[in-house]
């Protein structure tokens, strides 16, 4: 329940926060709360993904893309994500989530997010996201770039991340999905 309040708070902060260019890094400030902790008294691994959602929303709100999506009836969804942990975040510890768009493949957008403390990376996540239309259907990368403008020439997804995206993607239909568990 606390995540909804944190989300609403950051929606307000993002609305009035400094504007960003489309391809800039968003730096979103947080603090570890008691409700973020697991039984080992550090931030629960699942909470990182929820906070990453808020960081991506902050990025889209402050770089103006969210307003474009709202007008067009589009919304983002996570297709796949991977996260690596280096150090634990502890109770009351302040941290910053740095979010940036890395680039695209033929179907999806890749975002990198880093959880940092005093510039040191504690956790790093990569998200492969798609955009859907409220009326049904998928927003193509061409439609997306037409709406938000072309990407800079230095925006590129590392090859290993593209391979991960392809490997992590689930089949489009149930018939294509192999069953590895006995039923």
Automatic annotation (TrEMBL):
Transmembrane segments: none annotated. It comes from the Bacteria. InterPro entries: HotDog_dom_sf, THEM6_lcsJ_thioesterase. Pfam families: 4HBT_2 (PF13279). This is Thioesterase family protein.
């Amino acid at each position: 329940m606390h995540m909804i309040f944190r989300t609403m708070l950051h929606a307000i902060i993002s609305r009035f926060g400094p504007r960003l260019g489309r391809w800039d890094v968003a730096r979103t400030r947080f603090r570890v709360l008691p409700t973020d902790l697991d039984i080992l008294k550090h931030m629960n691994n699942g909470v990182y993904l929820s906070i990453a959602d808020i960081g991506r929303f902050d990025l889209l709100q402050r770089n103006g893309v969210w307003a474009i999506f709202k007008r067009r009836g589009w919304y983002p969804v996570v297709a796949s994500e991977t996260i690596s942990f280096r150090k634990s975040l502890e109770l009351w510890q302040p941290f910053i989530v740095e979010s940036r768009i890395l680039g695209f493949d033929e179907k999806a957008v890749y975002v990198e997010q880093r959880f940092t403390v005093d510039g040191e990376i504690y956790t790093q996540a990569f998200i492969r996201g798609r955009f859907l239309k409220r009326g049904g259907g998928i927003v193509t990368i061409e439609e997306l770039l037409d709406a938000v403008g072309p990407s800079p020439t230095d925006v590129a997804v590392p090859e290993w991340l593209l391979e991960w995206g392809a490997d992590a993607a689930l089949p489009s239909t149930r018939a294509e999905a192999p069953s590895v568990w006995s039923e």
